[in-house]
Amino acid sequence: MSTVIAVPAQGRLVSRLQSLAPVLIALPVGCFILFVFTYAVNVPWFDDIDAFLGFTLAYTDATTLSEKIYNVLVPNNEHRIVIAKLITLAMYYLTGEVNFRWLILIALLFILGTLVLLARLFRSMQLPWLAFLPVPFLLLQPEYYLTSLWSIPGLQHSVVICLTLSSQYMLTQSGRSNFALAITLQILAALSMSNGLMGLIAGGIILALSRNWYRLGGWVAGSVIAIWLYFYNFQSAGRTSDSLGYSLSHPVQAIGAFFTFTGAMFDLIPTVQGSWRYAPPTLAGIVLAALVLSLVYRMVRGFLPASSEKPDDERQKRRLFFIGGYVFLFGNVAIIALLRLRYGYEVMVVSNYMIYPAVMATLIYLNVLSECLNWRAQQRCLKVGALVSILIWVFAYGIYWPKAAYRKQMLLTSAMNQKHNDIGLGATWGTPFANMARSVMRESAKRGIYHYPTSYVTPVESLLTATTSTPNDSCLTMQVQGGGYSYVAQTEPLAYKNALGQAAILVQSDKRTLLYASEIPFTLRNFWLNRPVTSVKAEIINIMLEPGRYKVGVLTPSESNRPVQFSCQTVAVP
To answer: Which chain regions cross the lipid bilayer (predicted)?
Structure first.
């Protein structure tokens, strides 16, 4: 029988907060939804091109059922992304196109689905909704904007987390239908991304701790099927072995990476260069790992036959869920630390993966709350959780909102480059990937599968193909520095009398004209103080340019009299 913790009468302030709990919870939810709606754009980036558009072309061109099934199951780099591909097909057959903005919004539904699952778990504690407040603040924030605003990570990480945690929740419930649903969800999770394979281990541990041996046998059988389906005709083992070899040859760095990634939510000084940046997340990761270890020890002890502790059924179910969740999340932390370390230590705090520390933080908070034996202890947990979560939430929006805003303009600018120059969406000039991207984007646009979005460039788009005769402007003074990987080009600080809208640095050769979105409006100071911008600055990425010499200028659509101007500066791309 479930034990209900009595909630004593509270003071006037706490009573008011409890009455406002729905509004307070809705705040981070509404802000996050608005954030994604605002900055999601219909532009593919890098792996999106092959994973969604290339797949759609191949699937529709396939003439037999076996070829179509093959295209659904064939891996994309190191992962099978079956759910993402099925969602893409559904969109294509319902609308006639592949829209990346809508793919991002569908991924958002899986993030919100995870929140709903955690809310359902929380309700089993029979506590006031106010105690749930830290969860949406921890989970729904933009530290992982490169997952929430990018199609391929969104339809991998968000999907696999939602499906795996849902599967583990179903495993803690009684009934054959729940068990069948758990197996189905976990197989789908495993086929959505390799990270889902850790859910198979987590599910087996849940069933072993609950001593449900018949179900464990069924789970093992389902796991064998999932593993066979995943690794059948799989050809990415070479890169995995190289990454593992690097980490094993740098064991201290790999151990540090594990803790840094665990505490990545506390990457509080992201602008600091060098190893000092990783001190806060690494220390936080050590503390969180120690806390989880103590929680797991306490929870597992309750399942031992000799244990004198007799927790209620609902708490035992929650304990099983938390243990499974930790196995899944820490397993993925270890995988990312081991297999991504060779790409640079900064990957441990890269936005693409930050959703895992965010989900882990929510589980730790709910776990501590669940283990508290009285309302007073739970109240202390709530106060600490609310303080930490709100501070993280405010910090995340303060730092990453401008980054997301800049990324939107960068993607729209890059889409224009791809449309007119067949390069721009993450490819390096002259590589096989660039050739594939050119072919896929051309064919997708030709068939109407993909439509380029409008942007700040659209009103002056026609000028970009007619500027070869534009003379240099002796009045336009620019500084160009760099070489090798990139140049940084910028005008004088007060180059324009009137405030500019979105602008771009422009480079032009005899054959091509390409744009790079200006960074000036998105510096922390300019963005948050809403300062008028009177200059243009951008990094010219050389690897996306065809070798040659390029004139450097600016594109300022808000300057209707002279939206395109060139300086006397040039850059050489070898």
So the answer is: 20-41, 100-122, 179-207, 213-232, 244-266, 278-300, 320-341, 353-369, 381-401
